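To the wet lab folks,

You asked to see what we're planning to order before we commit. Fair enough. Below is the target structure as tokens, and below that is the sequence we designed to fit it. If anything looks off to you, flag it before the synthesis order goes out.
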């Protein structure tokens, strides 16, 4: 079993941390509460931080003459300036962080699908956009996983988010502790993961990791970190993941019975069709790695990208293609 570096993750505080919603409620989100046990959580409620109190009159995003404002219709207050200033101050103070899990559709924390109105009293929204805090997070942390709990009901997005979150955490500090060898070892352990996301990026990063001693390590580490984050920015294609799983199969194939191989190939077809989670195939390959003691296979983070307890093992929903 892998030992994981605990990611540093910022959460919207109402996602199970405090009853700070405008109506005094707390949001019970199963995934957020499970994730919380595996990360160093930094919960924040931007609306409480700017002094709106709880309970409070709701606020909304309003577009006026081409400008987007954050207003409280019941009081006529415009809190855009306070929220922008808070977001800037808070995000600058964070230091190293690996990702964000924010509240969906909130005019403050939302990252997409936040209702944008034509006026404080308008009944129907004009369209959708980002919340003031969520938008600031997206602009500042372009290379980090930033999600809302609503989108993570999609299992493919959830797997992608967790993979990025734990990968970025494991990269934190690499290249500083043990120099370039450290980075080369990190790259070797993440090669299959990178291959699943982008083979061309995997090769570029391999060249960087092989540059030991030719450039100052801080520059090289920073370049590697940027490239790694970008390689993992978009969800991988199902076919790329299956290709890596087929590659893994070659390491154990000689010891398997025909029925075991057929079972695995059937599982891959089910995964391709959205009828089985990726974690099922990964667990099976890992079990073969243990059985046949294939060290090079077991060191690949691809096979256990995040703690098993977070893998979706029930209520499976088909991934979006
Ligand atoms: S969505 Fe954000 S601002 Fe609203 S209650 Fe939750 S943490 Fe506070």
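Sequence we intend to order:
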């Amino acid at each position: 079993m892998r030992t994981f570096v605990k990611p540093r993750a910022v959460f919207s505080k109402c996602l199970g941390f405090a009853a700070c919603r405008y109506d005094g409620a707390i949001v019970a989100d199963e995934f957020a509460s499970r994730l919380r046990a595996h990360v160093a959580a930094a919960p924040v409620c931007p609306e409480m931080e700017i002094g709106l109190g709880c309970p409070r009159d709701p606020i909304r995003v309003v577009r006026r003459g081409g400008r987007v404002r954050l207003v409280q219709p019941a009081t006529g207050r415009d809190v855009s300036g306070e929220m922008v200033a808070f977001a800037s101050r808070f995000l600058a103070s964070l230091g190293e962080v690996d990702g964000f899990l924010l509240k969906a559709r909130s005019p403050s924390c939302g990252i997409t699908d936040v209702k944008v109105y034509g006026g404080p009293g308008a009944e129907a929204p004009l369209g959708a956009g980002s919340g003031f805090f969520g938008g600031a997070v997206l602009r500042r942390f372009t290379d980090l996983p930033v999600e809302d709990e609503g989108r993570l009901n999609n299992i493919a997005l959830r797997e992608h988010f967790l993979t990025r979150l734990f990968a970025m955490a494991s990269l934190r500090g690499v290249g500083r502790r043990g120099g370039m060898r450290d980075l080369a070892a990190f790259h070797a352990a993440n090669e299959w993961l990178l291959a699943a996301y982008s083979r061309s990026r995997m090769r570029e990063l391999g060249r960087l990791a092989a540059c030991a001693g030719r450039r100052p390590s801080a520059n090289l580490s920073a370049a590697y970190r940027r490239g790694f984050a970008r390689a993992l920015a978009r969800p991988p294609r199902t076919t790329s993941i299956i290709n890596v799983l087929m590659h893994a199969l070659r390491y154990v194939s000689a010891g398997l019975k025909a029925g075991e191989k057929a079972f695995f190939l059937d599982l891959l077809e089910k995964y391709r069709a959205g009828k089985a989670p990726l974690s099922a195939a990964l667990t099976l390959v890992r079990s073969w790695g243990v059985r046949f003691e294939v060290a090079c296979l077991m060191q690949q983070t691809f096979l256990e990208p995040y703690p098993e307890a977070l893998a979706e093992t029930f209520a499976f929903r088909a991934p979006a293609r």
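Structural context that might help your review: Residues 8-153 form one domain. The pocket of iron/sulfur cluster is lined by residues 12-14, 20-21, 45-47, 103, 106, 108-109 (CB under 6 Å).

Thanks,
Computational group
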